[in-house]
């Protein structure tokens, strides 16, 4: 968990320190939400602390009108800019260095859930639906509706989403984390 938090701070500032962690918590609502989500997930084994972390996380969900399940599998370096309206379920898998903005929906269908690769940027209002795979280094454009697999290094847009470029996400992923 500490490695994930270090990576999350690094994504905001390009370096890590305890001071930057405090700064991010106080100034970045997306970071604050992600930190509370990670604490809710990883405090399961400590009974009293777990209840407190889950309570704080549920309060944050209400404040940010978000329905993100803290049990989802999220890699290090998650950068969420605007939490508002974002939703995903507990069976979603998101790789490392993901960037997510507001009103993003990641939803399952017929018991199958999306798997999102590394270095992926999810634009405002996009929907990723069903048991599909979003490759590595992908950009999903604003308001795109993705219902089919997306190959690595693709930029997709539209309803339904179609590949519009193979340039990838390098220009969209700020301060990528690497171990």
TrEMBL record:
Its EC number is 2.3.1.30. GO terms for molecular function: serine O-acetyltransferase activity. This is Serine acetyltransferase. Belongs to the transferase hexapeptide repeat family. One of its GO terms (biological process) is cysteine biosynthetic process from serine. It is an enzyme of class 2 (transferase). InterPro entries: Hexapep, Ser_O-AcTrfase, Trimer_LpxA-like_sf. Keywords: Acyltransferase, Transferase. Coiled coil: none annotated. It catalyses: L-serine + acetyl-CoA = O-acetyl-L-serine + CoA. GO terms for cellular component: cytoplasm. It holds the Pfam family Hexapep.
């Amino acid at each position: 968990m500490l490695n994930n938090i270090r990576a999350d701070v690094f994504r905001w500032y390009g370096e890590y320190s305890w001071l930057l962690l405090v700064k991010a918590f106080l100034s970045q609502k997306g970071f604050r939400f992600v930190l509370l989500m990670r604490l809710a997930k990883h405090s399961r084994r400590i009974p009293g602390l777990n209840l407190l972390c889950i309570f704080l996380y549920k309060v944050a969900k209400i404040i940010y009108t978000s329905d993100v399940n803290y049990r989802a599998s999220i890699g290090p370096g998650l950068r969420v800019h605007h939490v508002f309206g974002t939703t995903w379920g507990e069976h979603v898998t998101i790789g490392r260095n993901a960037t997510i903005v507001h009103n993003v929906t990641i939803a399952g269908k017929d018991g199958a859930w999306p798997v999102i690769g590394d270095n992926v940027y999810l634009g405002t209002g996009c929907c990723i639906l069903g048991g599909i795979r979003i490759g590595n280094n992908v950009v999903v454009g604003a308001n795109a509706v993705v219902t089919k697999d997306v190959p690595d290094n693709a930029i997709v847009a539209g309803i339904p989403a179609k590949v519009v470029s193979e340039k990838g996400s390098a220009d969209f992923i700020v301060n990528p984390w690497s171990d």
